[in-house]
Amino acid sequence: MIVRLDPVIFSLGPLQIRWYGMMYVLGFIISGYLMRKLVDEGFFHVVKEKVDSFITHSIIGMFLGARFFYVFVYNWDYYSQNLSELLAVWKGGLSYHGAIIGLVCGAYIFAKNNKIPFLQMLDVTCVAGSQGVFWGRIGNFINGELYGRVSEVPWAMIFPQGGPYPRHPSQLYEAVLEGMVLFLVLWFLRKRVKVYGVLTSIYFIGYGSLRFLAEYFREPDNQLGYYFGGTTTMGQILCILMGLVGVCGLFYSLKKNEQIPAKA
Q1: 264 neighbors 258 (Cβ within 8 angstroms)
Q2: Phi, psi dihedral angles at 232 (to 5 degrees)
Q3: What are the sequence ranges of the domains in the chain?
Q4: pLDDT tens digit sequence for 138-177
Q5: What is the pLDDT of residues 28-60, one digit of tens each?
Q6: How far is CA 185 from the centre of its chain?
Q7: Strand (E) positions, 25-168?
Q8: What would the DSSP string read from start to end of 206-258?
Q9: First vs last Cα of the chain: how many Å apart?
């Protein structure tokens, strides 16, 4: 099967509306709905009118972090020679680990301005926003980017950007594992965990573990390749760090012991 999906939904003169961007919009819309539900449940202590403000903080933080990380960590050799493309996000080029850092910064600013405990803000972000990974990976699939390694499995697909060889559709693997599965776990646990910060730690550990596994099926970035004797990718290194942050966060959250209200 050859994957040739048009990444452009429609064009208005020079303006193009792309599926990649639309997937992110959909993820944020669903996040806003879920956050309002968390307000109703007593999990998120803020008036509903503030949810849109937090979504704005999230969008700005996520895109700045994702782009900054991709440009300076993943592909600086290219962008240092093509400075005019630094902000060309419509061509792809966003780092999920950078997006996480940007989201955490956005959540911190919002929490501080609205006097909301930071751990509560992080939990809300992870529970409501984790489903956004699913839509982002679907956008990658439509773009034909971040494809998998060459494979002979029956469901292997040919991505024009990856040459004539069939490959794992690793974007779909990640969409299911890191997007849907992890989101459903967190959504199920939201009424069973008693301390703020634990859900965020579970997310970091869970995402790090699932992404580490998915990296074995994903073609590493050409400009980076493998590390440690050709066995480990940059994504896996970052996932190990992410998992360690999750473990440390779990101990910190349990020690701080900020109780989630019984209504939640």
Answers
A1: no
A2: -130, 140
A3: 8-256
A4: 999 999 988 999 999 999 999 998 899 999 999 999 999 9
A5: 999 999 999 999 999 999 999 999 999 999 989
A6: 16
A7: 157-158, 166-167
A8: HHHHHHHHHTTTBPPPTTT-EETTTTEEHHHHHHHHHHHHHHHHHHHHHHH--
A9: 47
